[in-house]
Amino acid sequence: MTDKSRLIGSIVGLGLTAAILISATAFGYRMRPKDNACEALDYTIVDSDKRRYVTEAELDAMLKNAGLYPVGYHINRLSLHRIEQTIIHHPMVRTAECFITPRNEMRIYLSQRVPLLRVQTASDVYFIDTDRRVMEARETVKDSVLVAKGAIGVQMATTQLTDFAIWLQRHEYWRKKVDYIRVQTPQMVTLCLKGEQPRVVLGSLSNYEQKLAKLRTFLDNRDEQIQAIPYKELDVRFKGQVIGRK
User: Residues 68-80: pLDDT tens digits?
Assistant: First the structure.
């Protein structure tokens, strides 16, 4: 091969290589979102069919106030952990997880807190959720839950009263009967029943299962003469006894 042929071949080869590189670069540019920036933000509230305590607008505002709103920012500069922790600070959010899709879109999956018990004291109203944490009362919270009223501290609310609320959910007989709980002191707890039924004096919440089992036996087996007595109160504090008061 002559020198001239070699030169022509080299020029053609370089041209083909350059064409391939240009095509590959252009193809790669079309396949990759511009500057690897976050293109969109999407929220999925996994339990929104049951309750809706959180709005996308609230979440957007939280991220913007924290300087973490992702749209338009380079993917590699986003801290998914910080975004998750910011979302979790919303008073109605229970869990949050962030993902980046292959299209450079951020998706945030979150669940909401679930109220279990509503507490009403002389100075405050709040919920205890299923994780035994205090949850603020909002007008949007419409869940039907057990209500406890009176002199109730947070410790009692998150322990004894929460235990009772969980138990009540599992026992249809008493769940249908109990309207709310009245707490004078931790040693004087009363169940206020629905309708015209007499209130039930439990005393402390210790051994409430045995106390209510005893009361149910009494209610199921009392004769017509006893049923006709207009009791205002049934006291189950004492072992082996149900004391009726008019």
Answer: 999 999 998 999 9
Per residue, the 3-state secondary structure of 41-55, as one string, reads EEEEECCCCCCCCCC
Q: Give Cβ neighbours of residue 96 (< 8 Å, ≥ 6 apart).
A: 84, 87, 88, 108, 109, 110
Residue 88: CATH number of its domain: 3.10.20.310
Pairing of strands 115-120, 146-150: parallel
Same domain for 140 and 127? yes
For 221, phi then psi, to 5°, come to -115, 0
Report the run of H or E that residue 31 belongs to, with start and end. Answer: helix 3-31
In a domain, 28, yes or no: no
Q: Classify the C-alpha dihedral 149-151-154-159 as positive or negative.
A: negative
Q: What is the residue whose two structure tokens read 């279990």?
A: 116
Is residue 113 within 8 A of residue 94, CB to CB? The reply is yes
In this structure, the answer to whether residues 165 and 100 fall within a common structural domain is no
The sheet carrying 178-185 orders its strands as 134-136, 125-129, 115-120, 146-150, 178-185, 188-193, 199-203, 233-235, 243-245
100 and 143 both lie in a single domain: no
The tens digit of pLDDT for each residue in 173-199 reads: 999 999 999 999 999 999 999 987 889
